[in-house]
TrEMBL record:
It comes from the Bacteria. GO terms for biological process: alginic acid biosynthetic process. It is found in: Periplasm. InterPro entries: ALGX/ALGJ_SGNH-like, SGNH_hydro_sf. Pathway: Glycan biosynthesis; alginate biosynthesis. One of its GO terms (cellular component) is periplasmic space. Residues 46-322 form the AlgX/AlgJ SGNH hydrolase-like domain. Residues 1-23 form the signal peptide. This is AlgX/AlgJ SGNH hydrolase-like domain-containing protein. Keywords: Alginate biosynthesis, Periplasm, Signal, Transferase. Its main location: periplasm. Pfam families: ALGX (PF16822).
Amino acid sequence: MIIKHLKLFIGILTFVFLSPATAQENSTTFMEACRKGAQSPTITVAGKENWAFLKSELRFLSAGDFWGENAAKTSQAKDPKVQDPLAAITVYQKALAAENIDLILLPIPPKAVIYPDKLPDVNLPVARYDQSLQRFYDILRKQGVQVFDVTPLLINARKNSDEPLYCLGDSHYSSYGCKVIAEALAKEIQKSHKLSGKQKYTTEKNNIRITGDLYKAAQNSSGNTLPKDESIALYTVKGGETKSKESPILILGDSHTLVFDIGADLFSTNAGFPSLLAAALKMPVEVMGVRGSGATPARINVYRRSKADVNFLKQKKLFIWCFSAREFTEANGWNASVPIK
């Protein structure tokens, strides 16, 4: 217990007391580590203590500013018309507002942003090195988009628990990470959007072993030192349905809206972000997630749903757009012309 609290104290000191010169030096080191990782011959970049990182996330973090004129240099999309995420997000927010629907943008930070100290070949303290993301979120807020930036929340959660917020061998957050985000977002929704229910859910904790996508990819790599699987805690919601098409809340996005929630190759059911948000809000939510990009395909699905059901948009009060932040550069495109109806 004493050792645990000593580690926690040292971690807090490391996080807080950094001179401007040291902070800049660490940021440079972080960017260089991400650039090096982005050159990996496989999708898996092996870090310290069996932590594995996704090559495309490190490429994103090494790209710098990625909106406006910079989008042409940083985006993986070939079509210049769909390279800029700023235009697509602001247009979508305004279209929803015209339907009296609020939008919360929920980008999930790359693993390296929360665990920079686990990157290979560098010794970095836990701090924020995602300056481009912070600048982008500030621009979005100035244009009326509510951004729920969970990076400070997750970094702070690291100080209070040794439980991983991300999977070591998978590109997604852990069930515990889902829980931390869901509970904090629920408080914001209850406060700012006045949405909550009375359904009584319970949450049960148990452990399972999973083989994530990064560990799988590493198994065929020469010199691989990563394990085949890992033990992970699940926070499974019970006590009633957590999903409903009649819910005033819609969660749309990429596989971060599905992992630990739909089973099969996504590991488990009712232990992911949507179910844990429903439990925290005491009301079901609706989910329209995709396994691919959460940038454009997820919005296309919303459009198709609204065309098929004339009452769909009338039922909704809040959209939560949840996707990996790497999508800002790694998506196939940010189409600003996708309608909502």
